[in-house]
Amino acid sequence: MTSRRPDNFDGLGYRGREDPAFSGGYSGRSFNNSSSVDLQNWVTTPPDIPGSRNLHFDDRTPPFEAAPAAPGAQDTLPTAPPSEQLNRFAGFGIGLASLFTENVLAHPCIVFRRQCQVNYHARCYHLSPLTAVSVMYNVTKSQGPKALWKGMGSTFVVQGVTLGTEGIISECTPLPRELSHKWNPKQVIGHLVLKGLTYVVAMPFYSASLIETVQSEIIRDNPGILECVKEGVGRVMGMGIPHSKRLLPLWGLMLPTVLHGVLHYVVSSTVQKLVLFLLRRRSPAKQPVDGSETVQTMLDAYFPELMASFVASLCADVLLYPLETVMHRLHIQGTRTIIDNTDLGFEVLPINTQYEGIRDCVNVIRREEGALGFYKGFGSIVVQYSLHAAVLQITKVIYSTLLQNA
């Protein structure tokens, strides 16, 4: 039979071979008498998708090949900056070094400073760091290295109690734990009230921690890390180790403790924000261009905050040093504590003060020890922050070298 199909019949629509759009796709099929223009975009066969079955026997889909790179493309690629993981590790290491210096490496200075503050017998005030270092060496030589690291575990316990109490009070009350950028006087007062309540709750545990840090290693047992919790609870409930009648009640210690804590927080926060503002204004953030500038940008992002925190703590400790001396003497009174002789470092001395309160303590120190009596042990605070500044600078140099060589 002779086929009546024209030679130029496509199979799906009639279209002349002379149509210039013959090589294009086909449109959707129309069942009416559509013109060739309506049928020029009809898709005849599906594309050759990898894994599809529209192949002949023994045929395989060829693998995709990556498009060749344009000539000169590798020359225009920017230099890869240090990895984000390395930057995070650097920031974590810098913060960890600062935390280690504040709480571990500087602990001997804190111990000696507190012993000097409560030692009303002392003739040498240790206003110079040289005399403080020499006596600290004598204490270590006669009693061993543990003599200047005593009570370190209790300080961490007090910090944990403080943070936990602050979080619980902020969750159970409308007192704000943090201040927003658009703060008002009501929020500031509520925030300071929250801080004051936190210091009141942590006060008995701070008192127990203070006794552990100033007690001489010669007559001191080896208490557990939670011994200050036991002593703090016993101080609140009136149980535990018997104290003398000169022991001040907790409500009598509330005013100097809260006053010192709130003022220390206000001074340190204010100085920290001011220093951070000046540092960022002096060296604004720059967009990294190469590896070295990326390292410098990363260091500029971490160190202003650490430097601001360092300066804020230093200013607060120096300004409130006299109040801290009075507070520590009131806390230690009546606890039958025996401390090291801070004049020589080879003997022990009992603490037998009879202050009636904060005003009487200030008057007695001024009358018997002079104005410099409020600054006993000030040389140790110079050693502490000098050591802290040196560790920060060494850490910065080390991480700058590592990141530049990465």
From TrEMBL:
GO terms for cellular component: mitochondrial outer membrane. Keywords: Membrane, Mitochondrion, Mitochondrion outer membrane, Repeat, Transmembrane, Transmembrane helix, Transport. Its main location: mitochondrion. It comes from the Eukaryota. The gene is SLC25A46. Coiled coil: none annotated. SUPFAM superfamilies: Mitochondrial carrier. InterPro entries: MCP_dom_sf, MCP_transmembrane, SLC25A46. It is found in: Mitochondrion outer membrane. This is Solute carrier family 25 member 46. Belongs to the mitochondrial carrier (TC 2.A.29) family. Solcar repeats lie at residues 300-402. Residues 1-27, 45-84 are annotated as: Disordered. PROSITE patterns: SOLCAR (PS50920). It is a multi-pass membrane protein. One of its GO terms (biological process) is mitochondrial membrane fission. Residues 63-73 have a biased composition (Low complexity). Pfam families: Mito_carr.
